Amino acid sequence: MREGNRESGNPTFLTRFGEAHLADAETRSGTRHVYLGRLTKRRPDWLAWLGPDLGPTQFLCGSRKIPGTYRSVYRLYTLICFAMEDRFRGISTRLRDGNPYWQKVRILYNDPDTGCKRRVTVSYVRNDDILTALENTLLQFIPVDFTQMTYKAETVAQLAHSGLTTLSPNLYRTVTGLEFRTDTNGELFWHVFEDLDEVVNHISVERIPALVPKINISEICDFKCLRGPVHTVEYRGTKYAFKAHDVASQNKIFPAELFARIKIGDVPHVTNFDGVVTSTVQPEGVPYVAGILMNYYAQGNLRWLLRKAEASVEWEIKWKWACQIAHGMVEIHRAGAMHGDLRCENIVIDDKGNAFIIDIVDGRGCMEGWTSIYDEQDDPRCDVYALGVTLWEIASDGKDPVHPLTSVGMDDIDIIIRQCVIDNASERATLDHILTMIAEKGTCGCPRSDFK
Q1: What is the distance between the alpha carbons of residues 368 and 185, in angstroms, rounded to a whole number?
Q2: Which of 179, 323, 348, 438 could be bridged to 297 by S-S, CB 3.0 to 4.6 A?
Q3: Among 386, 402, 313, 308, CA closest to 344
Q4: What CA–CA distance (Å, rounded) separates 122 from 160?
Q5: Three-state secondary structure along 387-433?
Q6: In terms of Cα–Cα distance, which of 46, 38, 56, 34 is closest to 132?
Q7: How far is residue 225's CA from residue 368's CA, in Å, rounded to a whole number?
Q8: What domains does the chain contain, in order, with CATH numbers?
Q9: CA separation (Å) from 129 to 100, 133, 137, 141?
Q10: What pTM value is reported for the model?
């Protein structure tokens, strides 16, 4: 059934619905497409929820709300699941001239041969030759809430269901991509390929120094999602934070954070790095890094803490946080790394009210508003600018920064902030100088000798 070498990434194609052999295919521009059946002769069952008296184009332009109530995403057949607890799921859209022209839906497929969940993407591009094409109908429907997004994902999953059943023995072990297009006869043709854009590039355990603790994922339990890739877990009776490497969008950020943490080691006011979590759930059985295990801080991040406070936090506490953050940043730079994404959202507070820095990406990430437009992303002096904006956040009780930054109404902190948020990086104060200035107003709990 499969054409070409699977390992080389050459594409293969779905067969006709319900058949186990390759259908006759035609070659167009060097790419083979396989006929999957005509969809224009009658309304397909999987579009029934649009309503019997309403055409897809009318509905998808928003003339009627989706009927019914929220349905379980696992109800769809027995082989397709749109698993909301798996971060692979979702819908991506690209715009051209302000209108959607390409879309990709990520689903999980329960492989009946292995019992494993396989990652599958279904994509389609605007068809300018056939305005009534199914792909144009789907592109016109822009979900406005979770329920509508789920309906759309279910619709696309049902469309791919029969083809996936036929292709099941030959799915790619990484991510199988399906792309369909309607031809002039109203027939759907499918292109099947390995979707390399969605493949997670896991880090081999062999790249991790021997001194770094390695915990098998089978040893941790009680996973509860906090936000994005971060979960709370239990390991040997203690609650930890676990950051997973589970989607392709982390392929640059996660390795940067992991190796920065290894380089830095244990330093004051930076969250503890307790080890890497390993797994071998791959066909090759090669151990890889599934995530990072860190201390869990129940108070949450500083931005949230400042915003939820009923009254403004006392300045004595704010100066302590400022000093702890500045000291942590000095230690990060002394270790030969940089943060790259410093802000109050990446500061966590422990039960004793102490601040700890997290999400050290070593110059691989930045956030608009916390960096100068004139800075290079990997310039360590970016951290000075970000520290100034973070101090402004603390002084402003967690407000979002708007540039140019306004005065916070206190000369001591305003002077420090102004020495940080200078567009010309060479004119900014050093982190050591900023720490010395802050230490005149507050203490981080460390001996002053540690500052030198």
Answers
A1: 48
A2: 348
A3: 386
A4: 8
A5: HHHHHHHHHCCCCCCCCCCCCCCCHHHHHHHHHHCCCCHHHCCCHHH
A6: 56
A7: 26
A8: 6-198 (no CATH), 203-295 (3.30.200.20), 302-443 (1.10.510.10)
A9: 16, 9, 14, 19
A10: 0.72
Which amino acid makes up residue 75?
Answer: R
C-alpha span between 316 and 442 (Å, rounded): 7
Chain mean position to CA 349: 23
Note whether 357 and 297 are within 8 A (CB). no
Q: Do the beta carbons of residue 256 and residue 307 sit within 8 Å? A: no
Contact criterion met (CB below 8 Å) for 306 and 238: no
- DSSP label at residue 312: P
Rounded CA separation 75/282 (Å):
28
User: 272-307 burial, b if ≥16 CB within 10 A, otherwise e?
Assistant: ebbbbbbbeeeeeeebbbbbbbbbbbeeebbbebbe
Question: Which token pair is 217?
Answer: 């994922």
Amino acid at 229: P
Compute the C-alpha angle 237/228/178, nearest 5°.
125
| Contacts of residue 52, Cβ cutoff 8 Å, sequence gap at least 6 | none
3-class secondary-structure state, position 442: coil
User: Among 44, 43, 42, 26, which residue's Cα sits nearest to residue 34?
Assistant: 26
Query: Which token pair is 240?
Result: 């930890």
d(C-alpha 365, C-alpha 380), whole Å: 12
Contacts of 334 (CB under 8 A, 6+ apart): 267
In this structure, what is the dihedral angle of CA atoms 125, 131, 136, 141, given to the nearest 10 degrees? 150
> What are 308's two structure tokens?
């939820």
Q: Cα–Cα distances in Å, from 156 out to 83, 90, 104, 150? A: 14, 12, 10, 10
Positive or negative CA dihedral for 297, 303, 304, 309? positive
* C-beta of residue 164 within 8 angstroms of C-beta of residue 108: no
Q: What angle do CA 378, 380, 383 make, to 5 degrees?
A: 110
* Residue type, position 400, single letter: D
